[in-house]
Amino acid sequence: MPGHGVVYVDYAHNYGGMKALLHFLKAEYHDPRMHVVVGSPGDKGVSRRPGFAKVLSEYATTAYLTTDDPGFEDPAKICAEIDAGIDHDKVTVHTVLDRREAITAAITSSGPDDVVIVAAKGADPYQKVRGVNTPWPTDMAVVKEVASQLAAK
Questions:
Q1: N or C end of the chain: which has fewer CB within 10 A?
Q2: How many whole angstroms separate alpha carbon 57 and alpha carbon 48?
Q3: pLDDT score for 108
Q4: What mean pLDDT comes out for the span 21-35?
Q5: pLDDT tier at 22 (50, 70, 90 boundaries)?
């Protein structure tokens, strides 16, 4: 993306998947600044939260904690649980509950040599909120939308 580095959308949704992805990108792009957009599912995803905090502390420059299938849990509480385990001396953390806004912020704040990673939801066309599959355009569609807006400027 001209002036804003490269963006990866991936389904990495636990410590192992995220670590493999970020480790690869760190080597591939020679230790870039990495901006990671991620959230953790509610209800069933509690065990993933410490892993996300750990991998963000190991690799991310900036984390955008956001909503990802919160179920019957409060998305802000989920983000706070992830944030509590992040090493803030290594990672700048932003909590942006609106996933579209989080993706937009990560991309627009990135520089030409940076890597943006939009993780965990992948191609899921919905958010699971209080028992309802709420339509979501997919992370890739949002990334393309942001890219179009930046190209038009």
A1: C
A2: 14
A3: 96
A4: 97
A5: very high
**Cβ neighbours of residue 121 under 8 Å, at least 6 residues apart?**
11, 39, 68, 69, 99, 136, 138, 139
Q: For each of the domains in the chain, give its residue range(s) and CATH number, in order of start.
A: 6-151 (3.90.190.20)
Alpha helices (runs of H) in the chain, residue ranges in sequence order: 15-28, 49-59, 75-84, 99-108, 139-151
Cβ contacts of 58 within 8 Å, gap of 6 or more: 19, 22
Pairing state between β 132-135 and 126-129: antiparallel
C-alpha 43, offset from chain centre: 19
123, 11 Cβ separation under 8 angstroms: yes
* C-alpha of 18 from chain center: 10
| Pair of tokens at residue 86 | 């992040």
pLDDT in tens, 120-133: 998 899 999 999 99
DSSP string, 93-104: EEE--SHHHHHH
| Interacting residues of 7 by C-beta distance below 8 A, sequence separation 6+ | 1, 107, 115, 116, 117, 118, 143, 147
